[in-house]
Design a protein that fits this description.
Translation Initiation Factor IF3, six-stranded mixed beta sheet, globular, Rossmann fold, four-stranded antiparallel beta sheet, 12 helices
Length: 329
Protein backbone atom coordinates (compact mmCIF):
# COMPACT_ATOMS: atom_id res chain seq x y z
CA UNK A 1 0.00 0.00 0.00
CA UNK A 2 1.39 3.39 -0.97
CA UNK A 3 1.68 6.12 1.62
CA UNK A 4 -1.26 8.43 2.22
CA UNK A 5 -1.18 11.53 0.03
CA UNK A 6 -4.56 13.07 0.89
CA UNK A 7 -6.25 12.70 4.27
CA UNK A 8 -9.87 13.86 4.60
CA UNK A 9 -11.22 14.39 8.11
CA UNK A 10 -14.89 14.99 8.93
CA UNK A 11 -15.53 16.87 5.68
CA UNK A 12 -19.05 18.23 5.23
CA UNK A 13 -20.21 20.48 2.39
CA UNK A 14 -23.46 22.46 2.24
CA UNK A 15 -25.05 24.22 -0.74
CA UNK A 16 -27.33 26.67 1.01
CA UNK A 17 -29.49 24.44 3.23
CA UNK A 18 -28.76 21.27 1.25
CA UNK A 19 -26.15 18.81 2.49
CA UNK A 20 -23.87 17.64 -0.34
CA UNK A 21 -21.33 15.70 1.76
CA UNK A 22 -21.85 14.37 5.28
CA UNK A 23 -18.90 13.90 7.62
CA UNK A 24 -16.54 12.21 5.15
CA UNK A 25 -13.31 10.75 6.59
CA UNK A 26 -10.88 8.70 4.50
CA UNK A 27 -7.33 8.57 3.17
CA UNK A 28 -6.28 8.56 -0.49
CA UNK A 29 -3.02 6.75 -1.32
CA UNK A 30 -0.24 8.41 -3.27
CA UNK A 31 0.80 7.47 -6.81
CA UNK A 32 -2.26 5.36 -7.45
CA UNK A 33 -5.53 5.93 -9.30
CA UNK A 34 -8.41 6.45 -6.89
CA UNK A 35 -11.89 6.25 -8.45
CA UNK A 36 -14.88 7.98 -6.85
CA UNK A 37 -18.02 6.08 -7.83
CA UNK A 38 -21.73 6.35 -7.10
CA UNK A 39 -25.00 7.49 -8.74
CA UNK A 40 -25.59 11.02 -10.00
CA UNK A 41 -26.03 13.57 -7.23
CA UNK A 42 -24.17 11.51 -4.63
CA UNK A 43 -21.39 14.08 -4.09
CA UNK A 44 -18.59 12.75 -6.31
CA UNK A 45 -17.74 16.04 -8.02
CA UNK A 46 -18.26 17.97 -4.77
CA UNK A 47 -15.63 15.80 -3.09
CA UNK A 48 -13.25 16.19 -6.03
CA UNK A 49 -13.65 19.98 -6.16
CA UNK A 50 -13.07 20.21 -2.42
CA UNK A 51 -9.57 18.79 -2.83
CA UNK A 52 -8.38 21.88 -4.74
CA UNK A 53 -10.90 24.26 -3.13
CA UNK A 54 -12.69 24.97 -6.41
CA UNK A 55 -15.83 24.23 -4.42
CA UNK A 56 -15.52 27.75 -3.02
CA UNK A 57 -16.45 29.20 -6.42
CA UNK A 58 -20.02 27.90 -5.95
CA UNK A 59 -22.39 30.42 -4.36
CA UNK A 60 -23.72 29.82 -0.82
CA UNK A 61 -21.29 27.00 -0.15
CA UNK A 62 -20.18 26.13 3.39
CA UNK A 63 -17.41 23.66 4.14
CA UNK A 64 -16.34 22.16 7.46
CA UNK A 65 -13.63 19.65 8.32
CA UNK A 66 -10.07 19.21 7.12
CA UNK A 67 -8.30 18.04 3.98
CA UNK A 68 -4.61 17.35 4.52
CA UNK A 69 -2.30 17.17 1.51
CA UNK A 70 1.15 15.95 2.48
CA UNK A 71 0.23 16.80 6.08
CA UNK A 72 -0.87 20.41 5.40
CA UNK A 73 -4.50 21.41 5.96
CA UNK A 74 -5.51 22.99 2.65
CA UNK A 75 -8.72 24.36 4.17
CA UNK A 76 -6.65 26.84 6.18
CA UNK A 77 -7.79 30.29 5.02
CA UNK A 78 -4.21 31.57 5.19
CA UNK A 79 -3.15 29.10 2.50
CA UNK A 80 -2.05 30.43 -0.90
CA UNK A 81 -4.78 28.97 -3.14
CA UNK A 82 -2.84 29.74 -6.33
CA UNK A 83 0.09 27.67 -5.07
CA UNK A 84 -2.34 24.91 -4.07
CA UNK A 85 -3.83 24.71 -7.56
CA UNK A 86 -0.36 24.55 -9.06
CA UNK A 87 0.21 21.49 -6.88
CA UNK A 88 -3.19 19.98 -7.70
CA UNK A 89 -4.12 19.91 -11.41
CA UNK A 90 -7.60 19.41 -12.85
CA UNK A 91 -8.78 17.66 -16.02
CA UNK A 92 -12.41 18.61 -16.57
CA UNK A 93 -15.23 16.61 -18.11
CA UNK A 94 -15.29 18.58 -21.36
CA UNK A 95 -12.14 19.73 -23.17
CA UNK A 96 -11.60 23.43 -22.46
CA UNK A 97 -8.67 24.66 -24.53
CA UNK A 98 -7.84 28.34 -24.07
CA UNK A 99 -8.58 30.62 -27.05
CA UNK A 100 -4.96 30.67 -28.16
CA UNK A 101 -2.42 28.50 -29.96
CA UNK A 102 -1.55 24.90 -29.10
CA UNK A 103 1.87 26.08 -27.87
CA UNK A 104 0.45 28.88 -25.72
CA UNK A 105 -2.11 26.55 -24.13
CA UNK A 106 0.69 24.40 -22.69
CA UNK A 107 2.97 27.35 -21.89
CA UNK A 108 0.19 29.32 -20.18
CA UNK A 109 0.60 27.82 -16.70
CA UNK A 110 4.40 28.09 -16.51
CA UNK A 111 4.19 31.70 -17.70
CA UNK A 112 1.59 32.54 -15.05
CA UNK A 113 3.96 31.14 -12.43
CA UNK A 114 6.88 33.24 -13.65
CA UNK A 115 8.70 31.21 -16.31
CA UNK A 116 10.08 33.56 -18.98
CA UNK A 117 12.96 31.59 -20.48
CA UNK A 118 11.97 30.65 -24.03
CA UNK A 119 14.12 27.53 -24.19
CA UNK A 120 12.69 26.30 -20.91
CA UNK A 121 9.15 26.89 -22.21
CA UNK A 122 9.97 25.08 -25.45
CA UNK A 123 11.21 22.07 -23.47
CA UNK A 124 8.13 22.07 -21.25
CA UNK A 125 5.74 22.25 -24.21
CA UNK A 126 7.48 19.43 -26.05
CA UNK A 127 7.85 17.24 -22.95
CA UNK A 128 4.20 17.60 -21.96
CA UNK A 129 2.87 17.06 -25.47
CA UNK A 130 5.05 13.95 -25.78
CA UNK A 131 3.79 12.68 -22.42
CA UNK A 132 0.19 12.77 -23.67
CA UNK A 133 1.16 11.35 -27.11
CA UNK A 134 0.19 14.53 -28.94
CA UNK A 135 3.59 15.89 -30.01
CA UNK A 136 3.89 13.95 -33.27
CA UNK A 137 0.39 15.07 -34.28
CA UNK A 138 0.92 18.79 -33.70
CA UNK A 139 4.68 19.54 -33.77
CA UNK A 140 4.45 21.19 -37.18
CA UNK A 141 1.49 23.40 -36.25
CA UNK A 142 2.17 24.55 -32.71
CA UNK A 143 1.08 28.09 -33.57
CA UNK A 144 -2.30 26.93 -34.91
CA UNK A 145 -5.39 27.65 -32.77
CA UNK A 146 -6.12 24.87 -30.30
CA UNK A 147 -9.76 25.02 -31.36
CA UNK A 148 -8.80 23.32 -34.65
CA UNK A 149 -7.91 20.09 -32.85
CA UNK A 150 -10.37 17.23 -32.60
CA UNK A 151 -12.23 16.80 -29.32
CA UNK A 152 -9.99 13.90 -28.31
CA UNK A 153 -6.87 15.90 -29.15
CA UNK A 154 -8.21 18.87 -27.19
CA UNK A 155 -8.64 16.70 -24.09
CA UNK A 156 -5.05 15.47 -24.40
CA UNK A 157 -3.95 19.09 -24.81
CA UNK A 158 -5.80 19.99 -21.60
CA UNK A 159 -4.02 17.12 -19.86
CA UNK A 160 -0.68 18.45 -21.16
CA UNK A 161 -1.62 21.92 -19.91
CA UNK A 162 -2.31 20.50 -16.43
CA UNK A 163 1.03 18.67 -16.40
CA UNK A 164 3.00 21.75 -17.53
CA UNK A 165 2.98 23.30 -14.02
CA UNK A 166 4.34 20.04 -12.58
CA UNK A 167 1.52 19.16 -10.16
CA UNK A 168 1.78 16.36 -7.61
CA UNK A 169 -1.91 15.46 -7.79
CA UNK A 170 -4.20 15.22 -10.82
CA UNK A 171 -7.98 15.45 -10.37
CA UNK A 172 -10.10 14.12 -13.25
CA UNK A 173 -13.83 14.89 -13.40
CA UNK A 174 -15.33 12.33 -15.80
CA UNK A 175 -12.48 13.03 -18.25
CA UNK A 176 -13.70 10.70 -21.01
CA UNK A 177 -17.49 11.17 -20.86
CA UNK A 178 -17.51 13.56 -23.86
CA UNK A 179 -15.07 11.51 -25.96
CA UNK A 180 -15.44 8.77 -28.54
CA UNK A 181 -14.31 5.23 -27.55
CA UNK A 182 -10.87 5.51 -29.22
CA UNK A 183 -10.09 8.86 -27.57
CA UNK A 184 -11.39 7.54 -24.24
CA UNK A 185 -9.05 4.57 -24.47
CA UNK A 186 -6.11 6.90 -25.19
CA UNK A 187 -6.85 9.05 -22.11
CA UNK A 188 -7.26 5.96 -19.92
CA UNK A 189 -3.93 4.58 -21.12
CA UNK A 190 -2.21 7.90 -20.34
CA UNK A 191 -3.65 8.01 -16.81
CA UNK A 192 -2.34 4.51 -16.09
CA UNK A 193 1.11 5.57 -17.33
CA UNK A 194 1.04 8.79 -15.30
CA UNK A 195 0.25 7.19 -11.95
CA UNK A 196 3.88 6.24 -11.46
CA UNK A 197 4.61 9.96 -11.02
CA UNK A 198 1.27 11.43 -9.90
CA UNK A 199 -1.53 10.79 -7.45
CA UNK A 200 -4.67 10.59 -9.61
CA UNK A 201 -8.26 10.94 -8.37
CA UNK A 202 -10.97 10.32 -10.96
CA UNK A 203 -14.74 10.75 -10.83
CA UNK A 204 -16.55 8.33 -13.12
CA UNK A 205 -20.14 7.24 -13.78
CA UNK A 206 -18.77 4.28 -15.72
CA UNK A 207 -18.31 1.32 -13.39
CA UNK A 208 -16.40 -0.55 -16.10
CA UNK A 209 -13.93 2.31 -16.37
CA UNK A 210 -13.46 2.28 -12.60
CA UNK A 211 -12.78 -1.46 -12.70
CA UNK A 212 -10.22 -0.96 -15.50
CA UNK A 213 -8.36 1.94 -13.92
CA UNK A 214 -8.72 2.05 -10.17
CA UNK A 215 -6.23 0.95 -7.55
CA UNK A 216 -8.40 2.40 -4.80
CA UNK A 217 -12.17 3.05 -4.73
CA UNK A 218 -14.46 5.46 -2.88
CA UNK A 219 -18.21 4.73 -3.07
CA UNK A 220 -20.56 7.60 -2.19
CA UNK A 221 -24.35 7.63 -1.93
CA UNK A 222 -26.46 10.70 -1.15
CA UNK A 223 -23.45 12.52 0.25
CA UNK A 224 -22.44 9.70 2.57
CA UNK A 225 -19.38 7.48 2.43
CA UNK A 226 -20.63 3.92 1.86
CA UNK A 227 -17.33 2.09 1.45
CA UNK A 228 -13.71 2.66 0.46
CA UNK A 229 -10.65 0.50 0.04
CA UNK A 230 -8.31 -1.21 -2.45
CA UNK A 231 -10.11 -1.71 -5.75
CA UNK A 232 -9.74 -5.49 -5.88
CA UNK A 233 -11.34 -5.81 -2.43
CA UNK A 234 -14.21 -3.41 -3.13
CA UNK A 235 -15.07 -4.83 -6.55
CA UNK A 236 -14.60 -8.52 -5.74
CA UNK A 237 -15.68 -8.62 -2.08
CA UNK A 238 -17.68 -5.47 -1.21
CA UNK A 239 -18.53 -5.16 2.47
CA UNK A 240 -21.70 -3.13 1.93
CA UNK A 241 -24.79 -4.39 0.11
CA UNK A 242 -25.29 -0.95 -1.48
CA UNK A 243 -21.84 -1.22 -3.04
CA UNK A 244 -22.56 -4.73 -4.32
CA UNK A 245 -25.86 -3.57 -5.84
CA UNK A 246 -24.25 -0.56 -7.51
CA UNK A 247 -21.43 -2.65 -9.00
CA UNK A 248 -23.83 -5.33 -10.26
CA UNK A 249 -26.29 -2.83 -11.68
CA UNK A 250 -29.11 -4.04 -9.41
CA UNK A 251 -29.20 -0.78 -7.47
CA UNK A 252 -32.82 -0.05 -8.43
CA UNK A 253 -34.09 -3.60 -8.96
CA UNK A 254 -36.94 -3.26 -6.45
CA UNK A 255 -38.13 0.19 -7.52
CA UNK A 256 -41.30 0.53 -9.58
CA UNK A 257 -41.08 3.03 -12.43
CA UNK A 258 -44.18 5.16 -13.04
CA UNK A 259 -43.12 6.05 -16.57
CA UNK A 260 -40.33 5.05 -18.98
CA UNK A 261 -38.96 7.24 -21.74
CA UNK A 262 -36.70 6.07 -24.58
CA UNK A 263 -34.61 9.03 -25.77
CA UNK A 264 -32.02 7.11 -27.78
CA UNK A 265 -31.06 9.12 -30.84
CA UNK A 266 -32.04 12.41 -29.16
CA UNK A 267 -29.30 14.95 -28.49
CA UNK A 268 -28.95 17.62 -25.81
CA UNK A 269 -30.78 19.86 -25.07
CA UNK A 270 -33.80 18.13 -26.63
CA UNK A 271 -33.57 15.07 -24.38
CA UNK A 272 -33.72 17.41 -21.38
CA UNK A 273 -36.83 19.11 -22.77
CA UNK A 274 -38.59 15.79 -23.45
CA UNK A 275 -37.69 14.51 -19.97
CA UNK A 276 -39.12 17.68 -18.39
CA UNK A 277 -42.36 17.25 -20.34
CA UNK A 278 -42.61 13.64 -19.16
CA UNK A 279 -42.08 14.71 -15.55
CA UNK A 280 -44.79 17.36 -15.90
CA UNK A 281 -47.28 14.53 -16.49
CA UNK A 282 -46.26 12.71 -13.29
CA UNK A 283 -47.45 13.24 -9.72
CA UNK A 284 -45.13 14.33 -6.92
CA UNK A 285 -42.99 11.38 -5.80
CA UNK A 286 -43.42 9.46 -9.07
CA UNK A 287 -40.34 7.97 -10.75
CA UNK A 288 -39.28 8.39 -14.38
CA UNK A 289 -36.84 6.00 -16.08
CA UNK A 290 -35.01 7.46 -19.10
CA UNK A 291 -32.80 5.64 -21.61
CA UNK A 292 -30.24 7.76 -23.50
CA UNK A 293 -27.32 7.09 -25.83
CA UNK A 294 -25.97 10.65 -25.99
CA UNK A 295 -22.73 10.81 -23.91
CA UNK A 296 -23.39 14.45 -23.06
CA UNK A 297 -26.83 13.61 -21.67
CA UNK A 298 -25.31 11.15 -19.19
CA UNK A 299 -23.96 14.06 -17.16
CA UNK A 300 -25.84 17.13 -18.34
CA UNK A 301 -29.36 15.73 -18.01
CA UNK A 302 -28.94 14.69 -14.34
CA UNK A 303 -27.29 18.01 -13.50
CA UNK A 304 -30.09 19.96 -15.14
CA UNK A 305 -32.72 17.93 -13.31
CA UNK A 306 -31.02 18.44 -9.97
CA UNK A 307 -30.77 22.18 -10.65
CA UNK A 308 -34.53 22.22 -11.22
CA UNK A 309 -35.20 20.47 -7.92
CA UNK A 310 -35.72 16.88 -9.06
CA UNK A 311 -34.02 13.94 -7.32
CA UNK A 312 -31.70 11.86 -9.51
CA UNK A 313 -31.79 8.36 -8.06
CA UNK A 314 -29.32 6.72 -10.39
CA UNK A 315 -27.32 6.91 -13.61
CA UNK A 316 -26.25 3.48 -14.80
CA UNK A 317 -24.56 2.20 -17.97
CA UNK A 318 -26.62 -0.61 -19.51
CA UNK A 319 -24.31 -1.55 -22.39
CA UNK A 320 -21.68 0.02 -24.65
CA UNK A 321 -24.01 2.74 -25.92
CA UNK A 322 -27.04 3.02 -23.62
CA UNK A 323 -27.48 4.58 -20.18
CA UNK A 324 -30.35 4.49 -17.70
CA UNK A 325 -31.17 7.67 -15.76
CA UNK A 326 -33.77 7.44 -12.99
CA UNK A 327 -35.42 10.57 -11.63
CA UNK A 328 -37.96 11.13 -8.84
CA UNK A 329 -40.29 14.11 -9.19
Amino acid sequence: MNETCISIRHLSVFYGKSVALKDISLSIPGRQITAIIGPSGCGKTTLLRSINRLIESTDETRVSGEILVDGQNIMDRRLDVTALRKKIGLLAQKPSPLPMSIYDNVAYGPRIHGERDRKALDRTVQDCLQTVSLWDEVKHRLRAPASRLSVGQQQRLCLARSLAVRPEILLCDEPTSALDPVSSQTIEKKLVELKKDYTIVIVTHNIHQAIRLADYVIHLYLGELVEHGPANEVFEHPKEERTRAYINGTFLADIKFDKELDLKGTKCPYNFVYAKLALDDLAEGNILRIIVDDPTAVTELPRGMEADGYEVLNSNQLNKTDWEIVIRK
